[in-house]
C-alpha cells in the first residue's frame, strides 16, 4: 500500500456513529429480524449492549457474563426496572441476570439460549481459553444463532495511533483470512453455517482491507430438541450471579390483577361520566331523569353497536349507577387484558364494588347529585 495514501487515511478515519454503537446496532437489528426470546451476551463488560437489548420486546431472558465483576457492576443498576415499569407493567416478562465467570467454563445457567453474542470478546482470550471457547459456546450452549465480532487486523494500517493491537488487553488480532478459517472450522465441527460481514466500511479505494470490525454470524443447522438440552447430565454451577432483575409483567397474576382493576374502574368511570352528562341534558324532565336509560348516542359507533347487539345498557337507579361487566368487558383493552369474561370476574372479585348479583359495577352518585 502506498505510504502517503495510508498516512492520509490515518488522519481522517472516524466512524459515525462510533464503531461500538454500530456493533451494538448490528446485534439489535439481528434480534429484530430473528426475534430470539433468550439472549446471552458473553464478555458483556459495562452491560451497554444488554441495556440496549432490554428494549427489544421479543426478549424475555437476558443474561450477561464477564470475567471482570467490577466492569459489570459499574452500570448494572441501569438494568433495574424503573418506576414506570411498575406503573405500567409490560405484557412480556423480562428477567435480566449477570454472571461472573469465564467463557472457558461451562455453567448450566447458560443453557437454553436462542442467541449468544460475543462482541469484541475472542481477542481478549488467552490461547488456552480460546481453545475451550468453541466447545462451551457451540458444543454446550448450542444456541440457534451465535454472533462473534473481532477486529480486522488488515484495517489497522488505516487507524491512527494503532501500533500492534487496538487495545492493550488484546491477545491477538486476526486478518480476514485468519478469522474466516477459524470460524469455518468451528462451524464445521459443531454443525453450524456461518456468514461473514462487518461494520465500519473502509474508505473508497481501500475496499480490499475489509470492514474495521469483522463479524461472523453462525446459524445452527439442526434444530435442537428439548431432549438434547435435558440430556446434559446435571452439572455444578461455576458462575457467580452478581445481579438479577425480574421486571413486573402482566404475565404475573398480581400485576395483571392491578392492571385489570384500574382499567375496569377507568372504563366504568368513562361510561358513568357520559351517562351522567347525558342525564343532565334531560334533567328538566323529572320522569325521564329517574328512569333514565342510556341511549345510543352516548358512545362511539363502536360501543353503541355493542350495546345494541348485546343488550347491555348501563342505567341509573336512585343514587346508584350500574355498569354491566359485559359492557366493560367489551372494551378492547379490558378484553385483551383478561382474555375471558370469567377471568375478568375472577380478577376483580372482592376488589371492585359490584351489584348483588355480581353482574355490574356500581357507583353511588349521591354526592354528585348534591353538587349538581
Ligand atoms: N462486549 C463488550 C466489550 C468487550 S471487551 C462491548 O461490546 O463493548 C471484552 C470483555 O470481555 C471485557 O469486559 C473482559 O473483561 C471480558 N472477558 C475477557 N476474558 C473473558 C473470559 N474468559 N470470559 C468472559 N469474559 C471475558
TrEMBL record:
Domain of life: Eukaryota
GO terms under cellular component: cytoplasm; nucleus
Zinc-finger keyword on record: no
GO MF annotation list: metal ion binding; RNA binding; small RNA 2'-O-methyltransferase activity
Coiled coil: none
UniProt KW keywords: Magnesium, Metal-binding, Methyltransferase, RNA-binding, RNA-mediated gene silencing, S-adenosyl-L-methionine, Transferase
E.C. no: 2.1.1.386
Catalytic reactions on record: small RNA 3'-end nucleotide + S-adenosyl-L-methionine = small RNA 3'-end 2'-O-methylnucleotide + S-adenosyl-L-homocysteine + H(+)
Cofactor(s) essential for the protein: Mg(2+)
Xref: InterPro entries: Hen1 (IPR026610), SAM-dependent_MTases_sf (IPR029063)
Gene Ontology biological-process annotations: piRNA processing; RNA methylation; siRNA processing
Similarity field: Belongs to the methyltransferase superfamily. HEN1 family.
Family matches, as PANTHER family: HEN1, SMALL RNA 2'-O-METHYLTRANSFERASE
Protein name listed in UniProt: Small RNA 2'-O-methyltransferase
Organism: Rhodinocichla rosea
Taxonomic lineage of the native organism: Eukaryota, Metazoa, Chordata, Craniata, Vertebrata
Amino acid at each position: 500500500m502506498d505510504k502517503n495514501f495510508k498516512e492520509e487515511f490515518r488522519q481522517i478515519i472516524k466512524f459515525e456513529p462510533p464503531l461500538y454503537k454500530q456493533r451494538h446496532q448490528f446485534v439489535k437489528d439481528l434480534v429484530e429480524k430473528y426475534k430470539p426470546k433468550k439472549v446471552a451476551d458473553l464478555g458483556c463488560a459495562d452491560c451497554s449492549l444488554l441495556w440496549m437489548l432490554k428494549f427489544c420486546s421479543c426478549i424475555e431472558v437476558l443474561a450477561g457474563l464477564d470475567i471482570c465483576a467490577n466492569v459489570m457492576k459499574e452500570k448494572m443498576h441501569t438494568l433495574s426496572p424503573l418506576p414506570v415499569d411498575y406503573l405500567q407493567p409490560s405484557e412480556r416478562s423480562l428477567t435480566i441476570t449477570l454472571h461472573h465467570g469465564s467463557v472457558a467454563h461451562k455453567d448450566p445457567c447458560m443453557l437454553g439460549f436462542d442467541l449468544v453474542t460475543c462482541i469484541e470478546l475472542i481477542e481478549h482470550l488467552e490461547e488456552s481459553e480460546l481453545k475451550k471457547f468453541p466447545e462451551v459456546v457451540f458444543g454446550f450452549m448450542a444456541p440457534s444463532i451465535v454472533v462473534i465480532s473481532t477486529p480486522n487486523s488488515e484495517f489497522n494500517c488505516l487507524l491512527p495511533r494503532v501500533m500492534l493491537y487496538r487495545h492493550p488487553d488484546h491477545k491477538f488480532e486476526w486478518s480476514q483470512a485468519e478469522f474466516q478459517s477459524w470460524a469455518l472450522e468451528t462451524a464445521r465441527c459443531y454443525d453450524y453455517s456461518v456468514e461473514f460481514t462487518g461494520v465500519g466500511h473502509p474508505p473508497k479505494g481501500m475496499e480490499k482491507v475489509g470492514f474495521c470490525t469483522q463479524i461472523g454470524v453462525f446459524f445452527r443447522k439442526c434444530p435442537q430438541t428439548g431432549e438434547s438440552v435435558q440430556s446434559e447430565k446435571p452439572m455444578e454451577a461455576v458462575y457467580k450471579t452478581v445481579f438479577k432483575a425480574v421486571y413486573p409483567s402482566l404475565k404475573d397474576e398480581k400485576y395483571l390483577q392491578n392492571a385489570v382493576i384500574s382499567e375496569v374502574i377507568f372504563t366504568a368511570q368513562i361510561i358513568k361520566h357520559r351517562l351522567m352528562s347525558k342525564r343532565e341534558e334531560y334533567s328538566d324532565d323529572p320522569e325521564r331523569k329517574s328512569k333514565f336509560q342510556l341511549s345510543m348516542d352516548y358512545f362511539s359507533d363502536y360501543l353503541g353497536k355493542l350495546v345494541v347487539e348485546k343488550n347491555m345498557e348501563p342505567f341509573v337507579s336512585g343514587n346508584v349507577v350500574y355498569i354491566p361487566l359485559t359492557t366493560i368487558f367489551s372494551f378492547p383493552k379490558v378484553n385483551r387484558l383478561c382474555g375471558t369474561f370469567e377471568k375478568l370476574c375472577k380478577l376483580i372479585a372482592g376488589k371492585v364494588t359490584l351489584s348483588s348479583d355480581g353482574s355490574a359495577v356500581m357507583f353511588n352518585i349521591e354526592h354528585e347529585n348534591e353538587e349538581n
